[in-house]
Design a protein that fits this description.
heterodimer; A: 297 residues; alpha/beta; two-stranded antiparallel ribbon; 10 strands; disordered N terminus; B: 654 residues; alpha+beta; eight-stranded mixed beta sheet; five-stranded mixed beta sheet; 13 helices; 36 strands; 32% strand; elongated
Chain lengths: 297, 654
């Protein structure tokens, strides 16, 4: 379903139907740019009454409850809930390493982004899909149910050839998007320079950050035999290995340490970390893990 | 541990190149299969971790190399055909002497010693290189050439298969002489002759035996190189019957007793059950405790018994079954008829009428006038008598019987004698002749005698200083013995005098008994006597029938035809048991063939044998076939190969 090989359809209709019931959640207080479907913690103008407060000079006279004034001879101001929109950023790592796996990690990332973006669009949030390698050009922002198709098309144009370091990509993203909101970084985090600086850039913006590390089965359970010359698809770096039990064990250990390191790094800094295996269908991931993690509800 | 090289030098060189090539290949830059991965990031980290303990790492890396080298080493070792305990065949001519005597039937080696010996010989034959020749000789008391020298293994194995166990005794001498005849040709021929009949052929003699044979005396091995392979264990338990006979009681002659002697050759004392069967039914049983290495006797009272077959059986017989049974035949007395013709000779008459003589023969004593009666003539021409003794008288013609002439010459001119010699001094007695066994004439004096000239084929039994005094010579189917001195002489006046003091000596009755046994005993005593297996038996017939039938214990019938004498010779006595002699119109006679040989019953195998002056040590731990290792080595090599493949494929480290 979700990992269908059809390149034109990222998400199946059934899954979309499932997603319609969800909405994106943020734990932080953001100022939306436009009125949205999201009730803001701040008070503002909407049809939903929230509270009264004493009038202080300078308040907008339009909000004075004249009925109360007539009864009590005191001025009260009616306060309404403010409804605003949410900025949702799907930041996709489109480095060549993301093209591995079946389905490829990139496609997995696209599906993930599409699903989350869909949830956002349904709820009237502002959804922006960006990649790490796109430099200073801002990606298109989508809003509203009508934009679903366009968002999908945008996602599908992402090709796994944008070689840029994770840190640089994140930095560029932060420069491009000064706003607040939810940012979901979908990457394999496999950067020789380390993912830490990249995540720190994200942290510098006061955003609700989700880091979804997508790893393919080839990385989790490498099926290698004999004497091999492993070539890094990004920088053509070479590692000569002789596949052996201990080496594989060591690899698993290293991998586990790597994943655990990322998880700890994120949780210490208030980021949400999630390891996604490309063998786990996207719908499961969204309706299962992410729901539990609180990204969607 | 020994090696057999299977390759020539250049082949070894090629083989030696293989490990060198493997090492070379190993040092070459490994051609690694390129594989694109998302990131080498984690791999680098993993490899760095592993590089920390690099000595182990290096060892682990080269484990495949080591395994490959081990594989080649295994192959090379297998090609060397390592083995152990196998005596290598030395030389290229082999003579396998296989003992098939009675003791080789012992079952202390599974299944029998002979089968074990045959197995080992077969192993050796399998080991023969091409061009090697071998012959197989089986030996018991006589040797039998089973296969002539040949290089055909098939023939050798077939001949080997044909060796059957016998119940005979063991004697190595004949087998060795047979072997020696081939290895040392013309030894008795001219030393310096330059026309050599045949090249001497050195050969290795493998003797497969338990060593239970007397040392071979006076035999020189010459070109033969002996190797003795003892078969059987040294402490095999065995109880054997070494004697079984019947006898009438001295005090009550009608009562028959059976005596058996059992020998325990084992190392532990044995309580042996002995059962006596009479004509197939159990008649008596006894129990005897035999100490280790000791023998003991059992006596059975049989009562008044005149005819029958006795079989003795012990149930605790140990490893050798053939000596656990013995047979004895009780035949109705069938005594030979004898005639003593004498004008009067107390000494002879007394000696011929003793009780012992009566047991052996029925002796008629008559005067010379009996020679003229028609009764004598009829009997003399009909071989009625077994022996006729003519004392101081001469028949008109020789009878159809053995004769003993005392003081007279037989009629005819075959025998001649010279003038009277006064007081001939006896200087030599042929005690090897059965007639003169156990006879010492050193104290016997004769007053006068004559020098005897025996006809052709005669044997001088007593020699005096002047010449032969007593001789025996064959006459057709019979034999004539002539004593050229009187016992009772008579002078011209007819006065009788004692010519000798022989009748006063102990040797005289012994001589008479010898004569009775020799001339007349064959039919009576001979049949009842025990016969060793393989021994040929002379059977005398009381009739003039030209054939005689012998029934073996297994029911086989052998028809014998009369030979030149009145005796039939039967040699098929290989089987133990009771043989029956059937003659037309005659009661069936029997004789028993028993092992009765403590040498064969003593089955403990010997460590060494003496051949001539050479003591041949047995190679006790000797195994005919090499215990070859190459199969195991190849299996191990295969295992190494599999392990290598597994490690390569499955990334297993030790």
């Amino acid at each position: 379903m979700s990992n269908a090989t059809d390149t034109d359809v990222l998400l199946s209709p059934e899954f979309l139907a499932q997603l319609e019931r969800l909405e994106l959640v943020t734990r932080k207080i953001f100022r939306g740019r436009m009125k949205g479907e999201r009730r803001s913690p701040r008070k503002g103008q909407s049809v939903e009454f929230a509270d009264f407060r004493n009038y202080v000079p300078g308040d907008d006279l339009r909000f004075i409850d004249w009925n109360t004034y007539a009864r009590l001879d005191r001025l009260f101001l009616k306060i309404f809930f403010e409804e605003e929109d949410l900025h949702f950023y799907a930041l996709i790592d489109a480095s060549p390493s993301m093209s591995f796996g079946s389905p490829s990690k990139l496609r997995y990332a696209q599906q993930l982004a599409a699903a989350l973006g869909f949830v956002g669009l349904i709820r009237g949030d502002r959804v922006r899909v960006e990649t790490l390698g796109q430099g200073h050009v801002r990606g298109t922002a989508f809003r509203g149910r009508n934009s679903i198709w366009r968002m999908q098309q945008e996602l599908l144009t992402i090709e796994p050839n944008q070689a840029s370091s994770l840190a640089q990509g994140v930095k560029n993203f932060c420069i491009r998007n000064p706003g607040k909101g939810i940012v979901v970084l979908i990457s394999d985090l496999m950067d020789k320079e380390g993912y830490e600086s990249a995540l720190k850039y994200l942290l510098s913006r006061d955003m609700d950050i989700y880091v979804i590390q997508v790893l393919s089965a080839e990385e989790l359970e490498p099926d290698v035999k004999g004497d091999l010359r492993l070539v890094d698809c990004e920088d053509a770096d070479v590692a000569e290995i002789t596949a052996s039990g201990p080496l594989l064990k060591r690899y698993q250990k290293t991998l586990a340490a790597f994943v655990e390191g990322a998880r700890e790094f994120c949780s210490r800094r208030g980021m949400n970390y999630l390891l996604a295996k490309n063998q786990v269908p996207v719908d499961q991931l969204i309706t299962g893990y992410l729901r539990r993690r609180g990204l969607v509800r | 541990m020994s090696l057999i090289n299977m390759l020539s030098a250049w082949q070894w060189l090629v083989l030696a190149a293989i490990p060198a090539v493997i090492v070379l290949l190993y040092f070459l830059k490994l051609k690694r299969l390129p594989l694109e991965v998302p990131s080498t990031y984690l791999w680098h980290k993993s490899i760095e971790d592993l590089h920390v303990n690099s000595i182990w790492q290096r060892l682990r890396k080269s484990i495949l190399l080591l395994l490959q080298l081990l594989f080649v080493a295994m192959l090379a070792l297998a090609l060397l055909r390592p083995g152990w305990r196998g005596t290598q065949l030395t030389g290229n001519r082999f003579i396998f002497l296989v003992d098939n005597s009675a003791s080789m039937s012992a079952t202390d080696v599974e299944p029998t010693r002979l089968a074990e010996a045959k197995r080992r010989v077969a192993d050796l034959i399998e080991q023969m290189a091409s061009g090697d020749v071998a012959m197989i000789v089986s030996f018991s008391d006589s040797a039998r050439n089973e296969v002539e020298f040949t290089d055909s293994r098939r023939q050798l194995l077939r001949g080997l298969e044909g060796i059957k166990p016998t119940n005979r005794r063991t004697s190595l001498g004949e087998a060795l002489r047979l072997a020696s005849g081939l290895a040392n040709p013309g030894r008795a021929a001219f030393e310096f002759s330059d026309t050599q009949v045949a090249e001497p052929q050195p050969a290795t003699v493998y003797i497969f035996s338990d060593g239970k044979f007397p040392s071979v005396e006076g035999f020189s091995l010459g070109n033969l190189e002996p190797k003795f392979v003892p078969i059987g264990s040294k402490d095999a338990p065995n109880v054997g019957i070494t004697a079984f006979s019947t006898r009438r009681r001295d005090d009550r002659p009608e009562q028959l007793q059976a005596f058996a002697r059992l020998e325990n050759v084992g190392t532990q004392s044995v309580k042996a059950q002995v059962e006596l069967y009479r004509d197939g039914t159990l008649a008596d049983a006894d129990e005897i405790v035999l100490e280790a290495g000791k023998s003991g006797g059992v006596v059975f009272e049989l009562g008044d018994l005149h005819e029958g077959v006795l079989q003795l059986q012990t149930s605790s017989g140990g490893a050798l079954p053939v000596d656990d049974r013995a047979w004895a035949v009780i035949d109705p007395p069938a005594r030979a008829k004898m005639l003593l013709v004498t004008p009067g000779n107390d000494a002879l008459e007394l000696a011929f009428s003793t009780e012992s003589a009566a047991e052996l023969a029925e002796v008629d004593i008559v005067g010379p006038e009996f020679l003229d009666t028609p009764e004598y003539k009829a009997r003399a021409s009909d071989a009625y008598y077994a022996l006729v003794v003519y004392d101081q008288c001469q028949p008109p013609e020789l009878p159809q019987a053995d004769t003993l002439f005392v003081g007279k010459l037989p009629p005819g001119d075959a025998w001649r004698w010279g003038d009277i010699v006064e007081a001939p001094q006896i200087i030599d007695v042929d005690t090897a002749h059965p007639l003169m066994q156990l006879i010492d004439l050193g104290d016997v004096k004769f007053a006068e005698g004559r020098v005897l000239t025996a006809p052709q084929g005669g044997t001088v039994l007593v020699d005096s200083h002047a010449g032969p005094l007593f001789a025996i010579a064959p006459r057709g189917a019979f034999e004539d013995a002539v004593l050229a001195a009187d016992i009772i002489g008579s002078d011209e006046q007819g006065q009788r005098f004692a010519n000798t003091d022989w009748p006063l000596r102990l040797s005289f009755p012994v001589f008479v008994m010898n004569a009775l046994r020799y001339f007349g005993g064959a039919s009576a005593a001979g049949a009842a006597a025990n016969v060793q297996p393989g021994q040929s038996v002379t059977l005398r017939s009381a009739t003039s029938s030209p054939t005689l039938e012998v029934r073996s214990p297994d029911g086989r019938r052998t028809s014998l035809s009369r030979e030149t004498s009145d005796a039939f010779s039967f040699s098929g006595t290989d089987e133990l048991g009771v043989y029956e002699i059937a003659e037309p119109n005659q009661p069936i006679r029997r004789f028993a063939v028993n092992l009765f040989d403590s040498g064969e019953s003593d089955i403990a195998s010997r460590d060494e044998v003496q051949i001539g002056y050479v003591e041949v040590e047995g190679e006790a731990t000797w195994e005919g076939a090499r215990r070859e290792l190459w199969k195991a080595l190849l299996l191990v090599a295969l295992g190494v190969l599999c392990l290598e493949w597994y490690i390569y494929n499955r990334r297993v480290y030790l």
